[in-house]
Amino acid sequence: MSFDTPSDLPFMKMHGLGNDFVVLDARARPVEVSPALAQALADRQRGVGFDQMAVIENGPGDAHLRFLNADGSASAACGNATRCIARYLMDETGRTRLRLTTDRGELVAVDAGGGLTSVNMGAPQLDWAEIPLAREMDTLELPLDGAPVATGMGNPHCTFFVDDVDAIDLGSFGPRIETDPLFPERTNVQVVQVIGPDRLRMRVWERGTGITLASGSSSCAVTVAAVRRGLTGRSVRLVLDGGELDVTWAEDGVWMTGLTAHVFSGTLTAAFLEAHR
To answer: Rounded to two decimals, what is the model's pTM?
Structure first.
């Protein structure tokens, strides 16, 4: 981040089912986040700590959202952060329906009542080149042990259906799959256990971040993968380490619905910003 005259910068800490975010509101004050600053803020001992960072900007819709992972890399989509920010903007404006833009495209967010926020994450990408994969192949059964499913939700996903998600050493399994040559932009990794025709248990390794308590785009990808495999109906409740999320693969896109929390607001000091330009 470059400043002519560094000054304090407000931020918000939010989470969706424990999937946590630092959010910068850049609508009044433009903000450019460097990979170094993102990495410093993601440090849970020396910074604030987050799974992803989100920046709210002015856009053609109600707002434009940009996302960064904990390692400073960019992400076109972040479902839970989108829901958190949608709730913040709804509270700010009193509106119950918003049109948000991201590098993924235009997303619609609505107040689902009872403190729940829904976001339409758009149509899934099912073609190998759109996800993207390194070469042409069947995205329903990748040539990896376990025959996982590949899905794009604006970011790449690799879903393994297993008998017991808790038996998987995700800390070693996740990064190995994330960086497999099959995924030129790396990939998010999910291990999933079918509990019933409308219920899935999921654990997730997020690209550029690691193990997280929840992931919105991963939940959407897993639902799409389960439907394509004939394992569930098109509306599913996902049980994640951080809570439960409802996902429906509808005609107009993949809708995800769940709780959000604005935990606290704070200020990044000029000295911290200057040290991590």
So the answer is: 0.94
